[in-house]
Structure formats: C-alpha cells, structure tokens
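Progress note, sequence design subtask.
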C-alpha cells in the first residue's frame, strides 16, 4: 500500500488545533487493514509526535467501531498544519479523500 494513501487516512483522523476540518465516512475506513493502520500510525508518529498520533488512532478506532453498527457513520475532524504540510510534501491532496467543510 502506498504511503500517500495511508497518509490520507491519517489526515482525516487527526484532531489538533489550527486545522482545516474534513468529514470522512466508512468507505474510506473500510479500505485499510489493521496492519495498514499500524504502519501508518508509525509513520505519522515520526512526523507529529506520540500525542497526536494517539489521537489519530483513537479517532480511527471510534469511526471503525461506529461503522460496524452504521455503515453511514461519519466523523468531522481537524487536520493539523504539521500533518497537512507533511501530506502535501508526499503528494496527498486531502480533498480527494474527504469532504472539506
């Protein structure tokens, strides 16, 4: 799996301040395995640190669990400038992966 695709999921699941808001749903979450997510969290942790990476993972788990009950579940989250810049450097356009608010 390509890093940009995984990084897009991290973008959609982050929650720090000064962010642009995006809304994601179950179809995006369903594209990735637990192994993919664990790899992604490792990559993101090196960029944004343990605290933000932990928040990203917690949001992922929340949405994944909500999707098991309701396939139409969505979450609106924020993308930190650090993560947004890292994604841009890796060629990820978050608007491709999530609806901006």
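Output:
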């Amino acid at each position: 799996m390509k890093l940009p695709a995984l990084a897009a999921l991290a973008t959609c699941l982050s929650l720090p301040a000064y962010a642009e808001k995006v809304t994601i749903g179950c179809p995006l979450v369903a594209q990735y395995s637990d192994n993919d997510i664990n790899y992604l969290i490792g990559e993101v942790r090196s960029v944004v640190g343990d605290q933000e990476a932990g928040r990203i993972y917690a949001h992922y788990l929340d949405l994944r669990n909500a999707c098991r009950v309701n396939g139409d579940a969505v979450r609106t989250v924020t993308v930190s400038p650090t993560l947004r810049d890292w994604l841009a450097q890796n060629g990820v356009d978050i608007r491709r992966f999530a609806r901006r608010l």
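The longest helix spans residues 50-69. Work on this subtask will continue into the next period as scheduled.
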